């Protein structure tokens, strides 16, 4: 099933440009609108803000960034998979790893227009706990929560 062997590594700024490119392409496809921040600002955010607040893991295929997840033990801030590598288990692997090291409860937001993400999270045991969060994209979103069965 898995035609691509990928490995999970901790984020390293050497992968910054690839990570931001993946993030922007994947998000644009998911929500149908262009990223409002410049590429440079996005890299600054990734390296100096997001990585200070969250652990970031990357999925690599032959040293190419094909997935990224930013999380802590209570929430998932970002989860994006390269548009050419979706549906082969990368997001699942990243999510499972985050669940394992979580506090037993995780929350996240996803855009209401992103039905693919909603199906993915619901299949993975996340339940809707809120709607209509403020975000800079001005798009309605959904808050999800997962609680461990352990």
TrEMBL record:
Limits of the N-acetyltransferase domain: 6-150
Organism domain of life: Bacteria
InterPro entries assigned: Acyl_CoA_acyltransferase, GNAT_dom, MshD_Acetyltransferase
PANTHER family, per the entry: L-AMINO ACID N-ACETYLTRANSFERASE (PTHR43617)
Protein name as it appears in the record: GNAT family N-acetyltransferase
């Amino acid at each position: 099933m898995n035609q691509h062997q990928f490995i999970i590594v901790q984020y390293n700024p050497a992968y910054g440009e690839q990570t931001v490119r993946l993030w922007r392409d994947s998000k644009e496809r998911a929500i149908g609108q262009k990223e409002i921040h410049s590429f440079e600002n996005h890299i600054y955010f990734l390296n100096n803000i997001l990585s200070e607040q969250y652990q970031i893991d990357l999925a690599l295929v032959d040293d190419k960034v094909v997935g990224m997840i930013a999380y802590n033990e209570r929430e998932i801030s970002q989860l994006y998979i390269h548009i050419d590598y979706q549906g082969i288990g990368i997001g699942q692997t990243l999510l499972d790893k985050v669940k394992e090291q979580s506090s037993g409860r995780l929350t996240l937001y996803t855009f209401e227009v992103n039905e693919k993400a909603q199906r993915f999270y619901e299949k993975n045991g996340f339940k809707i706990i809120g709607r209509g969060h403020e975000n800079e994209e001005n798009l309605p979103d959904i808050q999800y929560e997962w609680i461990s069965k352990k």
